[in-house]
Write a structure and sequence with these properties.
Shape: globular
Largest sheet: 9 strands, mixed
Structural class: alpha/beta
Number of strands: 11
Oligomer: single chain
Order of helices and strands: EHEHEHEEHEHEEEHEEH
CATH class: Alpha Beta
Strand content: 25-35%
Radius of gyration: 18 Å
Length: 244
């Protein structure tokens, strides 16, 4: 298994600031935390793909297994640049401007690539988190069945989507583990790989979702980054042992 971290965005939402350098209350930077999450999931290595002007910055602060310099227009195009280094391996995708509070996310996503309830083979396993309604219009939202199989992926819906009989909504995707067959569904023109998930579903592939109980933050926007800082800091203070 190998990790892929696409960090080649231009930081428009944060006025050019490299989002992966943002600090979090755990004492880490976002990129470093994602590296740790991927390695904890059992990856043999990980690669970071970034813009040429950020390569020196990453070299200075992180010990990256494989650092690739790319000039791309979309996250999907960036991810495709990693394909030649992955051979026939399972790939773990984590985004460097995100933060989650759960442990062992990638360990769960790589545990099996079939669904016990249905016996169906999964081409990809997806980490799902509950998304507050105010952020659903900014996220890749998923419609799931009673077994958490992903029925539909809707990117940044204009309004929150309501659950219907037999299907659940309110869950957004945030991490993916995929088998080599999934590469065929990623197209460079897609803004991100959420579109590849839907393309695979449209081709009758089975995509399994795993629901996590913790919180997930897209720290690429100032409002959600500060929400992350406030929430995680508060939780850490509440769980800290009280001295006599």
């Amino acid at each position: 298994m190998i990790g892929i971290i696409p960090a080649a965005g231009n930081g428009v939402r944060l006025h050019g600031l490299p989002k992966f350098m943002l600090p979090v209350p755990t004492g880490e930077l976002l990129l470093g935390r994602m590296m740790s999450q991927i390695m904890a999931g059992g990856a043999r290595n990980y690669m970071v793909l970034t813009r040429p002007e950020n390569k020196g910055l990453i070299d200075r602060f992180f010990n990256v297994g494989l650092l690739l310099s790319v000039v791309t227009d979309t996250m999907s195009e960036t991810v495709l640049q990693a394909q030649q280094h992955c051979r026939d391996e399972t790939c773990l995708l984590g985004m460097p401007d995100t933060y989650w509070t759960d442990d062992k996310v990638f360990e769960v996503l790589t545990r099996q690539f079939f669904d016990i309830a249905t016996g169906l083979k999964c081409i990809a396993n997806v980490g799902l988190w509950r998304v507050p309604e105010k952020y659903q219009v900014k996220r890749g939202m998923c419609v799931i069945d009673v077994y958490a199989g992903i029925y539909e992926v809707i990117d940044k819906p204009e309004t929150p989507i309501r659950s219907t009989f037999g299907y659940r909504t309110g869950w957004g995707w945030g991490a993916i583990a995929w088998r080599p067959e999934f590469w065929q569904y990623i197209q460079a023109s897609d803004p991100h790989v959420g579109y590849a998930l839907q393309r695979a579903i449209d081709n009758k592939e089975y995509i399994q979702g795993y629901k996590f109980d913790g919180q997930y933050f897209d720290c690429g926007t100032p409002d959600e980054y500060f929400d992350c800082i406030r929430s995680v800091t508060s939780e850490r203070q509440e769980s800290a042992p009280v001295s006599d």
